[in-house]
């Protein structure tokens, strides 16, 4: 496998989740720092117009969105080391829990404290931040804080009960911890909500905070960086990706392999579509080939596919 390159910015909670999985799997990679909002010349340089971060380049295969990236990483043979046998159902539930914490936390944020360009960029994905609703109705924030407190208490009482160190027990963190830690970290280390709300503080939830600290200490996040130009050279110097095994599942929207298509996010304004040739489509993933030879991988969930 070519050494992966992660396009990321430090504040991104989803990038932290991907970096956690990379670290748990002991995969060496490099990072290209990009801006929080479009435009991102480092990605434009390789012909990628996708707006969500992180994005992972593995040779000429480009994985967009944390869903697609983690699905790819879990397809590797060594992924079994962080997914204990029989834990598949628990993993799905914990993934949903992490997403729920993040979505709930958005209603606790003060939009006036964020750069206007950031709020404008996220308006179509997270309307609560730009609608003015939070400023007009403080009870929304109060309710969201109570819900985060309830979720955090449940995590403390399950992950950290009876002397357990990790979500599924054992001596080392697993994917189960990563599925939740990124969202908890966003609350505590990202927007620092625990410093404003005592019910989320370390005094109120000591075992939860200790678990998060243990998880971060177990990771190796000291990764080398590349400039956009350096990453571009690595990507385009890589071998051409294989199309073996790629195909379009019958009955999915009437799409055909090699058809010209456009991909955009289903939960946002389609202002940054990616156009190309459809190589693969099933219930989990779709793959599009660009004219420059790159294969762009998207999660099927959350991606809108249109014929050109």
From TrEMBL:
Protein name per Swiss-Prot or TrEMBL: Glutathione S-transferase
Coiled coil, from the record: none
Record field: transmembrane: none
Residues covered by the GST N-terminal domain: 2-81
GO MF annotation list: transferase activity
InterPro entries, A to Z: DUF7962, Glutathione-S-Trfase_C_sf, Glutathione_S-Trfase_N, GST_Omega/HSP26, Thioredoxin-like_sf
SUPFAM superfamilies per record: GST C-terminal domain-like, Thioredoxin-like
Lineage: Eukaryota, Fungi, Dikarya, Ascomycota, Taphrinomycotina
Keywords: Transferase
Cellular component, GO annotation: cytoplasm
